[in-house]
Amino acid sequence: MNIVIFGAPGSGKGTQSEKMIERYGLSHISTGELLRDNIARGTHLGQVANQYISQGLLIPDELMIEVLSELFKEKPSMLEKGVIFDGFPRTIPQAEALSTMLDAHGTKIHAVVGLEVDEDELIRRILERGKASGRADDNLDTVRKRLDVYHKQTAPLRDYYLAAGSYHAIEGNRTVDAIFDDISKSLDEYKS
Ligand code: AP5
Ligand code: MG
Known about the structure:
Helix content is 62%, strand content 12%. By secondary structure, it is α/β, with parallel strands linked by helices. It has a 5-stranded parallel beta sheet. Helix 2 (31-41) crosses helix 3 (44-53), helix 4 runs parallel beside helix 6 and helix 7 (119-133) crosses helix 8 (140-154). The protein is globular, with a radius of gyration of 16 Å. It starts with a strand and ends with a helix. The structure holds BIS(adenosine)-5'-pentaphosphate and magnesium ion (MG).
């Protein structure tokens, strides 16, 4: 089972991914974590990514798709286990490229879990986390930019996956456990 966990910045993608890994034993690809790891190690990719991340902008599609493609080449076994995609795709071209890459490996996206959270709650969560996270993009100016980018470039994917019949809307203004109960119901239903 390959799952996309979808939602705005601060909607709980990372938090719910951890619970899904535990319950379903899936691999996890967080493009944000992958890029932050590259920034910390000072790689060339990290240096390029930092210029975009610190401004709340998306890394260009071409580069991001290349990074994913390399990852699948290096670790094809990931796809045997099933993957939770967290933070990818973020644009329609990324979704199309993901579909093509998975198709080449004889698989596809089985479900998209969409965490739907009010904007004031998103800002509250990110600023709270920003007190200790050390993330260059967890401040009010960058959060506003990230939300703006989300509405313009990423939110259209909701309709894309709704049309594909794979989108599961999850009410995300609740406790972590209440949200996870709903996610599990959707995925268990799907699996059976
Ligand atoms: P990325 O790392 O993906 O960040 P994001 O989408 O902005 O989301 P966050 O990681 O901030 O939030 P989350 O949804 O994971 O929520 P979390 O569980 O942490 O991307 C960062 C940047 O990298 C992008 O802006 C872009 O520049 C670049 N990038 C990454 N992928 C890319 C791509 N595919 N293409 C181009 N560029 C890309 O929760 C947030 C906080 O809330 C936590 O403190 C958590 O403890 C708390 N919390 C979670 N759930 C709840 C709850 N139910 N109630 C109360 N608090 C909660
Ligand atoms: Mg995250």
